[in-house]
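Here is one chain, start to finish.
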Amino acid sequence: MNRRWTLASSVAGAVVVALDGTVLTVAQPRLQRELGASLAQVQWTSTAYLVAVASLLVFAGRLGDRYGQHRVFAVGLLGFGATSAGIGVAPGVAWVIGLRAVQGVFGALLQPATLGMLRAVFPPDRLAAPLAARTAAIGLAAAAGPLVGGALVTGLGWRAVFFVNVLPALVFGLPALLRHRLSAAGSRAPLDVPGAVLLAVTLACLVHSLTERPASGTGLAVAAVAAVVLVRHERRTASPLLPPAVIGSRAVGAALGVLVVVSAALFGALFVATYLLQRRLGLDPLGSSVRSLPLAVLMVASAALCPVLLRRFGARGTTTVATGLLTLGVLVLSRAVSAPPLGCAFALLGAGFGTVMVAATQVVVRRAEVAVAGVAGGLQQTALNIGPAVGVATASALLHTGTGPTLLTLTAVAALGIPLARALPGTDEAHVPPRTGDDHTPRTTGEDRSARLSGAEGPHAAGNRPRAARNR
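Its structure:
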């Protein structure tokens, strides 16, 4: 597929997932009343999805590396739309919960592929702009979600919010499926099924434990034991699920760490802000959404500006300053009692998070070879699932101490991202992964550019590249 259509598909897939989560939150009260569901059952409509998607993201990314990112994207998006339609006609809450879990499986296939196929078709030095467009679209979806969901639930009922996903699934999923021949399959290395099972158990127990109120100590212990066994297995297997070239990179590890702590601080702060706005200040849900609009606006604006900042200051400088802005935003929120400081706090949160999302994601995806881009995308998505779960669990555990102390703790969590950001590449460091026979993306060093302009090959001879790369 061409680059424009791939970018549009990536954006559409990311928006569908982002919009689905926000509109569901609005629809849950009506769903509970009409289906006669308990509060615990309603919570499971979210938990079932979160556990399924978080546990399978990395393995799904590996499937994209093996069978082609566009193929897996098509299956994920079409399956996501089909299960959404199924939820829309579900006869009872048990069906909703079960289908939400199935939807999580397709969501896991979809999300890493939206990043992996960008890495497959864009040169590494041009990844920042498509990642910025993707992040800005997610920001818009997050802002529009409550409004769209509220309008649909009010006018058509809770079932209507699930049919929103069907049209984009058909528009972007079917072409990707029908044109799958243009999506070259990647490595044929054996799939590490035992590693995938161990990772799924680790992440499922971790996310489920963190989403319980209070957090489950037993689940956390099982997650820890499974993680230890996973590490031992990955060190011994010949074809690990988590390639050392990806998880062994200092820069990638730092970028993933930044994404975890920053998303934990942001979503924990937003959880507390709900109580601050509605209980302390007496605002209704619509008034609360209006007060938080600066977050979405600045997230979109900062994502659009981030490629320029990355060229000027590199990932290290850009991410360090952005993490500092988000940390300051949480701190300001802890002291805010009126409209101006609240607006300032939300603006700082949006500017910081939008920039970090683009900069850190660019490091993770850009440094990965095309053959493992899906795994890299899966790790990025996993970080953005674990972080919010940690942040909300932390906020829930501390909220009895008051909103101020809770937000100060989350400020400290956000500040942990600053030293991690210092480990990211600067403007003078190479960001492009070593050349391999599986990498279909041409290097963009000055030597290669000069060679191409002169009509000659650079230091990487054509014979060392796959035929598909030479003919593209």
